[in-house]
Design brief:
The chain is mainly alpha-helical. It contains ten helices and two strands, in the order H-H-H-H-H-H-H-H-E-E-H-H. A hairpin with a 2-residue loop joins strand 1 and strand 2.
Length: about 270
Amino acid sequence: MEFSDYIILALFGSLGAFISGFLGVGGGIIYIPVLDYFLNKAGMQNDVLVKGILANSLFTIIFSGSVSSYKQYKVGNFFPKQIIQTALPGMLSAFVITYLIKNGTWYSKEIFNLVFASMLLVIVLRLFGSKSKEHLQSDTEMPIWNYSITGFFAGIITAFSGLGGGVVMTPVFTDILHQPIKKASSIANGVIPLFAIVLGIYNLWDEPTQHINNWQIGYIVIPVVLPLILSTFIFAPIGVKVAQKTPQNIIRYVFASFASIVLIKLVYEIFYK
């Protein structure tokens, strides 16, 4: 890798970290396309590339999600009981799906792109197409099964997409369960690193069929993820701080806009490459 590559990774890592704190999505929506480019450039191919993208994205999310969640705690917007209720079933489902992906060649780059693009399309249509429901939002405590079911399916999405699950949890909590978006983002920020830690440990110990760097541990390529990780310690707290002062509709449309940008990139790759 050249020096300019590290600069680019740091810049995108800063953006991903800010988005992690601002939206409560872990930053994967930025990390995935960046990792796709750099891991492919370094020599990862086919199903190993997909596994590498998922592994390195989730490993980075351990840090971006943890820093964002700690900042939420510091500003008094933290919900530990709901985080645990959501995280436990999702950690199990994420691990099972990751195990199935790692022990097969069925999850190709083409399938990954289609899954990722389909999820983003649903999110964009949902966020841009529905009107604000602030008048329906309530701080009333939900039954535990609402959190558990959401977490279970978020874990599956995490394993398939590498996004961390926030792209599922935040819209479900706000649009379906009518929770305030700042509370939803805080819960998602707390759950995301728990998902990522379980999968990150697994990815560190797993043995890939391709080694592209001497500083590679399992599927984790240290020179690629390190600039992304270092950026989180500065920009994830800034994202949380800005989100606390931003109207909920603005957060909603920023979320949808970033998803749209990534979706356009994926559609181009699917149909024109």
